[in-house]
């Protein structure tokens, strides 16, 4: 079935930004996801043109809708590994941010074939297809999970040995290595950002991430089970990720190209116990069951000093601020429908892994 879109300009050529000195138009691949919901609006506010390309693998359609009101925004539905879709999405674009993937250890464990197809094969095809288009930055968003498990008294900087412990992190490491091997081969300037675990409010709010999940569960007075409370993890607010992406887009190319940056802040390294204690400052007296030996052995504290020394970048939002923000949203009834939209609010179950399947099943008519 073919339907006409009422506002074709919203879906086709990416509009130039009038009266703005920044003539940068950024394709955010995976922009409908949790972090993309913070990155797109931030860049639009800062005068960038933004287009999202997304396959909506969790059926999380409404993550896109708030952005459609902005004249600097456009959206393409589809798979980053499909050359025709990517070609269409890249029209008029100056820079690319890659957020897309099957994100997290649990979802890649549940769907190993889809994980390989997306996080290795489709991503590799995408990185190759970005060459020869005169792009400037290609920011690949990787993860601090790549450090896996490190000694109690160590913190991992960017030179630390990688020790990926899941299909998810293994694919990230392979992709980082591939991208960094392309010096002299590609005309774009790749930058790898190893993100800390995200927290904070965004349209596709994910409650399968520790800060968000613990805050909501304790707010609702659910009996929270905390596994391996002594283990460390770094955290970062989604708005700080958006600010960092802008910083990397605007930095002199020679300062960032073919380089790797941990993305987060030293102050936001927490043990799970530390997180629980912090949330309990707001919500005392909740029930918590402590368990040991979960199936997730990750334990890593990360050093984020390079962001500051090379880019002068500092995160602004503490975990405490993030917890308060989520509690405010919960108290004001903004997140009441989480249980009914479980797939929207967490990476638990796939709705689709290819655009073709959607067309054949016809739940998603083609836009002429
Ligand atoms: N959320 C975190 O805590 C965290 C931590 C470290 C790194 N990261 C990285 O940040 C990025 C974004 O994470 P997120 O939390 O927003 O995840 P998310 O799952 O909410 O978003 C990923 C997006 O990619 C899209 N996608 C998947 N396969 C696609 C394909 N083949 N073509 C086009 N789009 C596709 C999905 O539909 C989804 O919208 C990921 O690369 C992730 O590895 C996230």
Mind sketching the topology for me?
Blueprint: E1 2-3, E2 25-29, H1 36-45, E3 49-54, E4 73-77, H2 83-90, E5 95-98, H3 105-110, H4 112-129, E6 137-143, H5 167-180, E7 189-195, E8 197-199, H6 210-219, E9 224-227, E10 232-237, H7 238-250, H8 253-256, E11 259-263, E12 269-271, H9 272-282, E13 288-291, H10 305-311, H11 319-331, H12 355-361, E14 366-367
The chain binds nicotinamide-adenine-dinucleotide (NAD).
Nicotinamide-adenine-dinucleotide binds at residues 29-30, 32-36, 53-57, 79-81, 99-101, 103, 118, 122, 141, 143, 195, 197-198, 204, 206, 209, 347.
- Shape from CA axes? globular
Q: Which secondary-structure class do the elements indicate?
A: alpha/beta
Computed over alpha carbons, the radius of gyration is: 20 Å
**What does the main sheet amount to?**
7 strands, parallel
Hetero ligands: nicotinamide-adenine-dinucleotide
Order of helices and strands: EEHEEHEHHEHEEHEEHHEEHEHHHE
Number of helix segments? 12
User: What is the CATH-assigned architecture?
Assistant: 3-Layer(aba) Sandwich
Distance between the termini: 10 Å
Name of the level-1 CATH class: Alpha Beta
Report helical residue fraction. Answer: 25-40%
CATH topology: Rossmann fold
Show unreliable segments.
1-21, 361-368
Give the strand line-up of the largest sheet. Answer: 4-3-2-5-6-7-11
Report the count of strand segments: 14
Number of domains: 1
Strand content: 15-25%
CATH homologous superfamily grouping: NAD(P)-binding Rossmann-like Domain
The chain-level mean pLDDT equals 90
């Amino acid at each position: 079935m073919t339907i006409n879109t009422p506002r074709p300009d919203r879906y086709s050529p990416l509009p130039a930004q009038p009266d703005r000195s920044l003539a940068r138009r950024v394709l955010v691949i995976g922009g409908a996801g949790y972090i993309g919901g913070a990155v797109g609006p931030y860049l639009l506010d800062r005068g960038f043109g933004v287009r999202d390309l997304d396959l909506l693998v969790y059926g999380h359609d409404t993550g896109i809708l708030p952005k459609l009101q902005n004249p600097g925004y456009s959206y393409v539905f589809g798979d980053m590994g499909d050359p025709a879709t990517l070609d269409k999405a890249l029209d008029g674009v100056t820079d690319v941010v890659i957020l897309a993937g099957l994100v997290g250890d649990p979802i890649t464990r549940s769907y190993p074939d889809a994980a390989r197809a997306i996080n290795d094969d489709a991503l590799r095809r995408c990185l190759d297809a970005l060459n020869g288009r005169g792009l400037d930055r290609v920011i690949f968003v990787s993860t601090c999970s790549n450090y896996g498990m490190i000694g109690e008294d160590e913190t991992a900087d960017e030179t630390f040995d990688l020790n990926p412990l899941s299909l998810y992190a293994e694919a990230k490491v392979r992709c980082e290595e591939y991208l960094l091997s392309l010096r002299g081969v590609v005309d774009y300037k790749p930058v790898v950002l190893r993100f800390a675990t995200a927290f904070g409010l965004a349209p596709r709010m994910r409650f399968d991430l520790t800060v968000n999940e613990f805050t909501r569960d304790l707010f609702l007075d659910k009996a929270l089970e905390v596994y391996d409370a002594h283990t460390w993890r770094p955290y970062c607010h989604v708005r700080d990720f958006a600010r960092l992406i802008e910083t990397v887009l605007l930095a002199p190319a020679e300062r960032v190209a073919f380089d790797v940056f941990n993305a987060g802040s030293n102050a936001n390294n927490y043990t799970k116990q530390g997180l629980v204690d912090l949330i309990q400052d707001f919500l005392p007296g909740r029930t918590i069951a402590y368990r040991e030996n979960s199936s997730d052995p990750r334990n890593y504290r990360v050093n984020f000093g390079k962001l500051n020394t090379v880019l002068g970048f500092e995160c602004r939002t503490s975990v405490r601020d993030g917890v308060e923000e989520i509690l405010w949203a919960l108290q004001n009834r903004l997140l009441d429908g989480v249980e009914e939209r479980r797939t929207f609010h967490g990476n638990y179950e796939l709705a689709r892994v290819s655009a073709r399947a959607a067309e054949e099943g016809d739940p998603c008519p083609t836009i002429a």
